[in-house]
Design goal:
The chain is α/β, with parallel strands linked by helices and 686 residues long. Helix content is 36%, strand content 19%. It contains 23 helices and 20 strands. The chain binds adenosine-5'-diphosphate (ADP) and magnesium ion.
């Protein structure tokens, strides 16, 4: 068995399954073994059905009479069945989990655990989890729970691991710092625990492994970076001061400090490698603009890379306003740009000072004359290779300075321990006059009474002072949906799609312009819609999370997020950051199905607007196996490392030091070296 073989080489994993796994980032056999349980359920000591009492219960029996129906309430499917044991029968019910219809084999025994409670006037076992009785270790009663990915639910993962049970013995060692065989044993214990202790011990080891990789990546990157040379950029205080004086606002102190850090850093003939972290709306773009101007004044070229065409265009427009009066030559280079050949010729000839673009910037035929600074916005959206491509565009013997910007805060605890040697500037202050976004959780049933009148009011409120559109009548609204078309949620919740929601909102607000935006639209279409929204020609924009990244429309003052419970905390905070950008009061409504009490995540979001605080909460709330940030976009793709475990971190740090003392190790431990590349995008910017 080769750990880097495709998951397709595993029993029971066909091409279709492999495709779903791939979307979840599980491509190789190695990824597969490291798909760790999110949690464990205990099915020990089931109660006889005749003895069942209200509250949390475990029962064991066979299930029949399964059926699914739609509730009258929108967005709700109800799946029901009857579980029987030798002593009696009990009704079970699930909401929005129609996949349960496919889970059970008739006449096989399952364990069920959930709350036995009165619901709609009837006693039911409500939304129980279920596991095949023969899968449960009889002494421990433990059953792992895996994160569902699309159509693959926890029980599917259990089936895959059962099929791969005998493969664990073939897992080779990874680290020289632990006893041989530890890795395979610990992975086995994580997936097939025979006691709760097993799960703890396994998690501890796997956290160590992960920290080891993370710290190793950070140290190696630092070493590499120190070997490189760069063009030192002299500090031009007067020029920069003039530019700052021309701005329509005063810089925040945090912006001043960050800019100062960057200027000092770039003066040295070594490449800057700095992460600029600032909450949404903290004004990172302006820091980038000042840094770019500094470099351009000294005769260098600057490239600014943005993750989407919309964002690149917006940066182009706002930076042109600020920098063109000072003689800076700016160009936009995105997929839709015409006359690319001509633009590229001008770039390589040095006629352009600042290029703002998307991936289109990364093609091999885009060459620079004198690339001195690279700014990457929303850095976690780019892979290492993409960034390296840009870095390689600098003059042969020199690396460019690199400024990466992110709104996904790295929790302070993590920063101090793991990223001790990364240069970081933090914008921990919002521009004056910003008000926190008022956030409220609403059950979807309340929508009509509570939300629509507020929406109407927002739409009739005069435009925000900062709104620039000439066609504006009132303030604007974002409405975020999970899916593009009906039946495409990809989650357990059956979400209303962008298209359906647009239609419904048009019925409610017939006199308003309502349009939609999603990732499957052509780039030019997307840009056109965004442009029109930004000008105030669209009142309500119904969109998927494509608006999550950095788009700035100060006149949009209300955001509604449907199926809020299906997003991660970091992502919700990012989304919410699209409003509250002007001087008017802004609102964010988190719609939930109302079937369950709002999660702690949503309640924390309701309470706080502080991205750093929320990042800490997120880190604490997520159990083992869950990924920090959102599943697709998480900057910190850490599986399990408990980053507040400082003892384990110092042990890993010491062990990495030892490991690095022997240069042969880096050749010998191939898998380790290959595995750490994914951390490099976090710990290095070059
Ligand atoms: P982010 O950090 O999320 O990228 P932006 O750079 O997009 O934030 O800035 C958000 C908005 O704040 C922009 O409209 C920008 O012009 C404005 N802005 C930036 N700095 C200041 C400041 N010091 N005072 C007032 N407004 C500012
Ligand atoms: Mg931004």
């Amino acid at each position: 068995m080769n750990l880097f073989d495709s998951v397709k080489s595993l029993k029971g994993v066909g091409p279709k399954t492999a495709e779903v796994l791939k979307k979840a980032g599980i491509k190789t056999v190695r990824d597969f073994f490291y798909t760790l349980p999110r949690d464990y359920e205990t099915y020990a000591a089931p109660t006889s059905i005749s003895e069942i009492r209200p509250g949390k219960v475990v029962i064991k029996g066979k299930i029949d009479s399964l059926s699914t129906r739609r509730a009258r309430k929108r967005n709700l499917s109800i799946t029901e069945g009857v579980v029987r044991d030798a002593t009696g029968a009990v009704k079970v019910v699930w909401f929005n989990q129609s996949y349960r219809m496919r889970q059970f084999v008739p006449d096989k025994e399952y364990y069920f655990t959930g709350n036995f409670e009165l619901k709609n006037g009837r006693w039911n076992l409500v939304s129980p989890t279920a596991a095949l009785a023969t899968d449960i270790d009889p002494t421990s009663g433990l059953s792992p729970v895996y994160v569902a990915h699309g159509s693959l639910k926890s029980h599917d993962f259990k089936r895959f691991f059962k099929g791969a049970r005998d493969k664990f013995a073939e897992i080779p060692d990874l680290l020289p710092t632990v006893k041989p065989g530890t890795r395979r044993e610990m992975l086995f214990r994580a997936h097939f625990p025979s006691s709760l202790r097993d799960t703890v011990v396994a998690r501890q080891y796997l956290a160590y492994e992960e920290l080891f990789e993370l710290i190793l990546a950070a140290k190696l990157n630092r070493r590499e970076n120190e070997k490189l040379k760069a063009t030192g950029v002299p500090f031009e205080a007067d020029k920069v001061r003039k530019l700052v004086a021309s701005l329509p606002f005063k810089l925040t102190n945090a912006q001043r400090r960050a800019t100062w850090d960057i200027f000092q850093n770039m003066e040295k003939p070594m490449p800057m490698n700095r992460l600029l972290q600032g909450d949404v709306g903290s004004g990172k773009t302006m820091v980038a603009a000042l840094s770019a101007y500094e470099v351009i004044s000294a005769g260098g070229q600057v490239a600014l890379l943005a993750p989407t065409a919309i964002l690149a265009t917006q940066h182009f427009e706002s930076l042109s306003k600020v920098l063109e009066p000072f003689g800076v030559k700016i160009t936009l280079l995105i997929g839709a740009t015409k006359k690319k050949t001509e633009i590229k010729r001008a770039i390589v000839a040095g006629e352009i000072d600042l290029v703002i673009g998307t991936h289109a910037l990364l093609t091999d035929d885009t060459e620079f004359k004198n690339l001195t600074l690279v700014v990457i916005d929303e850095q976690h959206r780019f892979g290492v290779e993409q960034r390296q491509k840009l870095v390689l565009k600098s003059p042969e013997d020199k690396a460019p300075h690199l400024l990466s910007m992110t709104a996904t805060p790295i929790p302070r605890s993590l920063q101090l321990t793991v990223f001790g040697d990364l240069d970081v500037s933090i914008l921990d202050e919002l521009p004056a006059g910003r008000q926190p976004v008022e956030t409220k959780i609403l059950e979807e049933v309340e929508t009509r009474e509570k939300l629509y009148p507020i929406m109407r009011e927002i739409l009739e409120t005069p435009p925000d002072a900062k709104g620039k559109g000439t066609k504006m009548h009132g303030q604007q609204i974002y409405w975020i949906c999970k899916a593009i078309e009906d039946g495409m949620g990809g989650t357990m919740t059956e979400a209303t799609s962008v298209k359906t929601r647009t239609r419904k909102l048009k019925e409610i607000f017939p006199n308003k312009t309502i349009e939609f935006l999603h990732g499957k639209m052509k780039p030019a279409e997307k840009d056109a819609v965004m442009e029109r929204f930004s000008n105030g020609e669209i009142d309500i924009l119904v969109s998927t999370t494509v608006v999550e990244v950095g788009v700035d429309v100060p006149n949009a003052t209300l955001m509604v997020i449907e199926n809020a419970e299906t997003y991660g905390l970091a992502q919700l905070h990012q989304l919410r950051g699209r409003v509250g950008r002007g001087s008017s009061r802004s609102y964010c409504f988190l719609l939930t199905s109302g079937e369950m009490a709002p999660s702690r995540r949503l309640r924390e979001l309701e309470k706080s607007n502080d991205g750093f605080y929320l990042a800490e909460v997120d880190l604490k709330l997520r159990g083992p196996g869950e990924i920090y940030g959102s599943l697709q976009h998480g900057a910190l793709d850490l599986r399990i490392a408990s980053l507040s475990d400082t003892k384990l971190i110092s042990r890993a740090q010491a062990d990495v030091e030892k490991f690095l003392q022997n240069p042969e190790n880096m050749v010998k431990y191939k898998e380790l070296m290959a595995g750490i590349t994914k951390y490099q995008q976090l710990t290095t910017l070059n």
